[in-house]
UniProtKB/TrEMBL annotation:
<dbReference type="Pfam" id="PF07819">
    <property type="entry name" value="PGAP1"/>
</dbReference>
<dbReference type="InterPro" id="IPR029058">
    <property type="entry name" value="AB_hydrolase_fold"/>
</dbReference>
<dbReference type="GO" id="GO:0016788">
    <property type="term" value="F:hydrolase activity, acting on ester bonds"/>
</dbReference>
<protein>
    <submittedName>
        <fullName>PGAP1-like protein</fullName>
    </submittedName>
</protein>
<feature type="domain" description="GPI inositol-deacylase PGAP1-like alpha/beta">
    <location>
        <begin position="137"/>
        <end position="197"/>
    </location>
</feature>
<dbReference type="InterPro" id="IPR012908">
    <property type="entry name" value="PGAP1-ab_dom-like"/>
</dbReference>
Length: 303
C-alpha cells in the first residue's frame, strides 16, 4: 500500500514538474527569441525613453519565475474552459458594460481572474472569446463589432468599454478604426497588445499571426490612420518575450503604463498595479460602476 502511494505521489510530482518545466522552457525560449529580435531591431527612438531602465539579474530571475507562474495559470484556466465551459462572472444589472477579450490561442479562461476582480470592483463585466484566434484580424474585428452592438442593445448602454489582452487589443482597435462613426466604444485598455506589430513570427499558425507581423499590410494601415478619438491605453510589462514593449504602444491615442519589474507577457493579467491602473483608466473614461440588484433587494428587504 505504501509503495503504491509513493508511486502515485512520484507520478503526480513528475507530472507537475513536467507541466511547470514545459512552461519554464517556453518562457526562457521566448525570452531568448525576444532578446535576439531586440538586437536585430533596436528600440524605436520615439519610445526608447520608456524602456531604457536596465533590469538587474535578480529582477530578471524573479520575472522569469513570475511569468512562468502567470502563464501556467492562463494555460490551466484555458484547459478548464475547454473541459468545463466558459467561466462565470456574476452579472450586474446596471453600469457600463466592460467587454473582456483574450489574446492569440487564448479563451475566456485567460481573462476570468481579471474579470472576477473587476466585478468585485463594481464593473459590469462581459467575458467573450473569438470564434477562432487563427482567423484574419478583420474577421475577428467584425465579430467584436457584433458583440459590442449586442451589448449595447441588451443593456441600453450608449457605449461599451473594452479590456483586451495581446491580440485582442489589436482586433478591438482595428474594429474602432473600421467604424469611426459608430464603434460604440468608450475606452480601450490593452495589456501587451502588439499595436505596432511583432518583429518575428516563428511559424505561428493562422492568418492572424501573419496580420500581426510589423511589416504586414494591416499593421501599416493602422499606423497610417489618424487617432480614432477613443482613448487607447496600454499596460506593458518589461521582460516581454512575445510583444516587444516599444511596439505595444500607440502614439497619440492614450497613456502607457510600464510595469516595474520583469513581468513578461502574461503578468499584466494578474499584477496588482496593472489591475489598479485598468480600474483608474475605466473610471477616467466615464465608465459607470454597476449595482448588484440582488444585493440591493436584500438590503432593502432587511432595512
Amino acid at each position: 500500500m505504501a509503495a503504491s502511494l509513493v508511486l502515485v505521489l512520484e507520478i503526480v510530482s513528475a507530472s507537475v514538474a513536467g507541466y511547470y518545466g514545459a512552461n519554464l522552457l517556453f518562457v526562457l525560449g521566448g525570452r531568448a527569441i525576444g532578446w535576439r529580435a531586440a538586437k536585430l531591431r533596436p528600440l524605436d527612438p520615439e519610445h526608447a525613453e520608456l524602456f531604457d531602465a536596465p533590469a538587474s539579474v535578480l529582477e530578471r530571475v524573479r520575472g522569469t519565475v513570475y511569468e512562468t507562474w502567470c502563464q501556467t495559470r492562463v494555460v490551466h484556466a484555458d484547459m478548464r474552459r475547454r473541459v468545463l465551459g466558459s467561466p462565470r462572472v456574476a452579472p450586474l444589472s446596471s453600469g457600463t458594460p466592460v467587454l473582456l477579450l483574450p489574446g492569440y490561442l487564448e479563451s475566456t479562461g485567460a481573462m476570468a481572474s481579471l474579470g472576477r476582480w473587476l466585478r468585485r470592483e463594481g464593473f459590469r463585466v462581459a467575458l467573450d472569446e473569438f470564434p477562432s484566434t487563427f482567423r484574419p484580424i478583420a474577421d475577428n474585428a467584425a465579430y467584436v463589432r457584433e458583440r459590442v452592438q449586442a451589448l449595447r442593445a441588451e443593456t441600453g448602454a450608449e457605449r461599451v468599454a473594452i479590456v483586451a489582452h495581446s491580440m485582442g487589443g489589436v482586433v478591438a482597435r482595428s474594429m474602432i478604426h473600421s467604424h469611426p462613426e459608430d464603434h460604440g466604444v468608450a475606452v480601450l485598455v490593452c495589456l501587451g497588445s502588439p499595436h505596432r506589430g511583432v518583429t518575428f513570427r516563428v511559424g505561428a499558425p493562422g492568418r492572424s499571426a501573419r496580420d500581426m507581423v510589423a511589416t504586414s499590410p494591416l499593421m501599416r494601415e493602422l499606423a497610417e490612420r489618424p487617432p480614432s478619438g477613443v482613448p487607447v491605453h496600454t499596460v506593458v510589462g518589461m521582460g516581454e518575450q512575445i510583444v516587444s514593449p516599444p511596439w505595444a504602444t500607440v502614439t497619440g491615442e492614450g497613456e502607457v503604463r510600464v510595469l516595474a519589474g520583469s513581468l513578461g507577457h502574461f503578468g499584466p493579467l494578474f499584477d496588482g498595479d496593472s489591475r489598479r491602473q485598468i480600474r483608474q483608466w475605466l473610471l477616467d473614461a466615464g465608465v459607470e460602476v454597476g449595482v448588484d440588484s440582488k444585493a440591493t433587494a436584500m438590503v432593502e428587504a432587511t432595512s
